[in-house]
Amino acid sequence: MIFPIEELVRFSDNIYEITVAASRRAYQMSRIKDPTIDENDGKVVSLAARQVFTKQVNYRIEQQ
Fold it and tell me: What is the dihedral of CA 22, 37, 31, 53, to 10 degrees?
């Protein structure tokens, strides 16, 4: 699986926001050693980005 360029091109919201969400998801996945990382040839960032872009994983902005 490669980075979801199709979703990125169609994305019309805040790109910074979703980039941060994907980065944090990648960090989570690497910390828990998610087995899907191995299925994706160790490409945790592209896996996390695909999860966020395809809404398999949701995120929210916390107000401070």
Answer: 10
